[in-house]
Amino acid sequence: MENSITQRDIKMKLAARVGKVPPSLTLAISAKAKAMKAEGIDVCSFSTGEPDFDTPQHIKAAAQKALDAGKTKYGPAAGEPKLREAIAQKLSRENGLNYKPENIIVTNGGKHSLFNLMLALIEAGDEVIIPAPYWLSYPEMVKLAGGEPVILSTDVQTGYKITPEQLRQAITDKTKLLVLNSPSNPTGMVYKPEEIKALAEIIVEKDILVVSDEIYEKIIYDGAEHLSIGAVNSDVFNNTIISNGFAKAFSMTGWRIGYLGAPVELIKTIAKIQSHSTSNVCTFAQYGAIAALESSQDCVEEMRQAFAKRRQAIYDLLHAIPGLTCSKPEGAFYMFVNISKVSNSSLEFCNALLEEQKVAVIPGVVFGADDHIRISYATDLATIEKGMARLDKFVRSQS
Ligand SMILES: *Cc1c(COP(=O)(O)O)cnc(C)c1O
To answer: What is the architecture, at CATH level 2, of domain 64-294?
Structure first.
């Protein structure tokens, strides 16, 4: 064709900020396991970070109704007023956080919430304290926003939790924010109320901000108690940002709905960012979220009980495998397993396990813990039994 434009080899110079950031390896491993399955290979996948249940019917019905009623147009960038109201009420009723609708912004998922928060808060050189093992996106979000992640390592001795002294010593005059995630992905640990209170004291004393990622608050076991750090007292409340969403509690990962609770000034700033980037979250999906909060919470408890059964089953099976050690998680749906007696590279361990036994798990290196693997038990009991038998075989073959 005469006028066709052909693509030349343009040497593209990408922004330095993306150079340091690797793609999400958990998504890559899940994708590889799915692709193997599609080829007809019998893969047991424990890699995904999402509940395997369908979204409860009444939530889907509310979104369908909204769709039929023409809720198909642009809405306010900060979210449907009715949803912001319902979220404010939830946080006040269930978490003791005194928020009004103007303290709430609706986002395209918890990940989007945290990313926008970093963009709104972090300047070049600002330090953000992240306890390890951490959710893999936290440090990358900080880097994308131009900040410096400061990693605090923990181990099984402290239950994978930071101590107040550790936090105090990590704070410098550049510290802007602490990222707290309880219940934790990947470790499943839950900070006890008195531990939260001790951290809150230091946050107030040093006047830093804390973002509390509470996405797993509903998935807890054995009477563990979730205390939102913002509820400790009004001083720490003013320094707190709450991040939560619908993905885990209501099995709505694909809906992409999360939210932040924070001081009004910050919410306005994040609304401004959203107004120039994503605009509002899918309008009719937000009506599903309203139904999730305003209807019976029985579905949440039913899923929690299913997770509790699987947790016990997988814990018992793992414990019978010589060479692997793990503690019993109090929340979320992951087993965080120490593999140091078997391998000194979590990535090699995971690749070999997938190749040889067709079992997909996530290497701890992506969470800042190369001597561990993460096994998600958001899958059925039959897969858990089959997969752990294969893992047992694999581990025995390594010695
Ligand atoms: C799943 C998850 C989120 C939020 O996920 P979205 O799907 O973006 O809502 C946030 N934090 C942690 C630790 C998670 O595991």
So the answer is: 3-Layer(aba) Sandwich (3.40)
Q: What pLDDT is stored for residue 398 in this prediction?
A: 92
Q: How confident is the model at residue 10 (pLDDT cuts 50, 70, 90)?
A: low
Pocket of ligand 1 (CB under 6 A): 49, 109-111, 135, 181, 185, 213, 215, 245, 247-248, 253, 258
Name the residue at shortest CA distance from atom 15 of ligand 1.
185
Residue 33 · residue 45 · CB < 8 Å: yes
d(CA 229, CA 212): 7
Report CA(364)–ligand 1 centroid distance (Å). 17
Choose the residue to mutate in 160, 185, 256 for probing ligand 1, maximizing ligand atoms within 8 Å of C-beta.
185
Probe target for ligand 1 pocket from 134, 137, 215, 241, with the most ligand atoms within 8 Å of CB: 215
Question: What number does the ligand 1 atom closest to the CA of 113 have?
Answer: 8
pLDDT of residue 5: 60
| Residue whose tokens read 């700033």 | 269
Q: Where are the alpha helices (DSSP H) in the chain?
A: 16-19, 25-38, 57-68, 81-95, 110-121, 137-144, 164-170, 193-206, 234-238, 264-276, 283-294, 298-319, 346-357, 381-398
Q: Ligand 1 centre and the CA of 298: distance in Å?
A: 22
pLDDT level of residue 48 (50, 70, 90 thresholds): confident
DSSP string, 279-299: -S--HHHHHHHHHHHHS-SHH
**Nearest protein CA to atom 10 of ligand 1, as residue:** 110
* Cα–Cα distance for residue pair 373/326, rounded to 1 Å: 10
Domain boundaries, the chain: 7-54+299-398, 64-294
- Evaluated on CA atoms 274, 278, 282, 285, the torsion sign reads negative
Q: Dump pLDDT digits (tens) for 241-291.
A: 999 999 999 999 999 999 999 999 999 999 999 999 999 999 999 999 999
CATH topology of domain 7-54+299-398: Aspartate Aminotransferase, domain 1 (3.90.1150)
